[in-house]
Amino acid sequence: MNDATQNAKPGIIGRVFRGIWRPFDILRRILHLLLLLIIFLFIFAGFSGSGVKSLTQPVALVFNPNGQLVEELSGDATERAYAEATGSAIPETTVKELVDLLKAAKDDANIPLMVLNLNNLAGGGVSKMQVLADAIKDFKASGKKVYIYANFLSQNQYYLASLADEVHLHPQGAVLIEGFGRYRMFYKDALDKLLIDWNVFKVGEYKSFVEPYLRNDMSEEDKNSSAVWMGGMWDAYTNDIEAARGLEKGAITNYSNNFADTLEQNGGSMADAALSAGLVDKLSQLSEFRQIIIEQVGKQKKENTFNQVSSKNYASLNKVSTKKATLSKDKVAVVIAAGSILDGTQPSGSIGGDSTSKLIRKATNDKSVKALVLKVDSGGGSAFASDVILTALEEFKATDRPIITSMGSVAASGGYMISLAADEIWATPTTITGSIGIFGMLPTFDRSLNKLGLNIDGTGTTKLSGALTAGRALDPEVARIFQANIEHGYDDFIGKVALGRDMTKEAVDKIARGRVWFAKDALEIGLVDKLGSFDEAIEAAAGLAGLDDYQIKYIKPELSFTEQLVVNFSAKASVITRNIDTRPEWQKGIAGNVLNTINKQFENLNRFNDPVGVYADCLCADNL
User: Fold this and answer.
1) Listed residue (470, 410, 80, 364) closest to 232, CA to CA
2) 604/593 Cα distance (integer angstroms)
3) What is the residue-wise DSSP string for 347-397?
4) Residues classed as catalytic
5) 156-178 residue pLDDT tens
6) Which of 434, 350, 426 shows the shortest CA–CA distance to 616?
7) What is the distance between the terminal CA atoms of the chain, rounded to a whole angstrom?
8) Strand partners for 334
9) The dihedral of CA 325, 329, 334, 335: what is its sign?
10) pLDDT tens by residue, 446-478
């Protein structure tokens, strides 16, 4: 948590230098982007007319999702465009984009088959993978084949790979399935050595977010709670793969637990181990695999490979409408709430108290919107911002139009709080939710400073004057204030749950206290109403509104003409820069992975911006 000194405005000197630097920084960015625009305009002028406008012959769709599967891309449109144009964009792909693409390919006569290329797929949560898997199954149901060739398949990649009609693996390749785990870095000894006092205020023995600052290991409460929801996700993961591959129940768990034995039995060959376990169909060289596909769709004239179109290029040829095919003016609005919940206005990929509320009010003011679906994929964040969003949703509900919450991979803590205005809460079968509890943190550094010979002293007009200075020891009065506020916040939270779920506060408290619940358990204890997909939640919202014919309208921030121009240009520029790695050297390799892990811990702290330092957050989202 940021303490009060961090939230305070900079001093006069800082403000002066910031005011001087800001115009120059803006000018620098504009000039940099203009330079890129000029360079790429010259480049694209030479071949802008040579792109494929439509498919005229059978080709294989090379389905190659990139990076993390998300509900929304991170960052505002222009920042994202700049990152794409310079080759520094965060690798992400929206689930909706991929599902829409597969729907189009299913009905395209020039796409007789699909080749999965999962080399760049990082993951994104079992529930998102299941949505994508359903779309692949739907593609196969049309009578079209799915193939995959891989050198190496991670656990996330193999989930989708298992759906292929033929899984080809390089003879020196491997399929690595590790299972789900939740391992965190704990800081207590480090904080003690640095003489930092990390003052924590919370309610709930299961509110494990703060444990790394208080302990050197995971509490039994957190271990037991985590084991339940991770076990549920593992069951879903293994059952899906075993069904897709026709394997006996327990085969995937046995493969993971007995991998060393299987490897020794196959002479140390990981590829042979995967083949013997039935995870792959053939061990092939890439040239052999290409020939199999060439026989079905033909060979490219200039390249020694099969006729193909990539996901990115095919998407540009098929701008799939987000609306249901209808002439109706009635709409079911969708507002996406994905990422950490933060105060104020936030870019895509985060949930801003003000910016998300603005989208909800936009739906409220649109008379053609007859129902609202809030799509939540968040572990929470600022309690204040969560309350602001909940209020905006209640204002929509006050207009006698229904709201449905559709939970994604996670809708916990603040993510659960913003779900409470809904007439019905829908979760996917692998959603984790709950974590009803709040906390606050206030680190103080007086002992560290004293060790360095630095001392803070002064005077003030009240007991609270300077009490939140991080360089002073925490005053007992301030500790009482924080704890009282946290307990009030918890009581308010469970009160909101009790009202929204028609339960008593005592009943809510028994299932709250920061505990995380798996979807089926959340259904049993009344935290959610139904298990089902996002599409089913849309249909439920339409049903509550009495709609048979409707459009689906995604409520998003509107781009200015300049922003849209930059976004459109970057899409072309990224064709050239997509393979450029602009990361500094320290972020690469094994050392980079370690340093990035540490850096992520600081980023988690830095994102806290609740105005009173109270958070409804759950670290469970980081493990999906």
Assistant:
1) 410
2) 17
3) -TTSEEHHHHHHHHHHHHH-TTEEEEEEEEEE-EEEHHHHHHHHHHHHHHH
4) 207, 413
5) 999 999 999 999 999 999 999 99
6) 434
7) 23
8) 373, 554
9) positive
10) 999 999 999 998 999 998 888 888 889 999 998
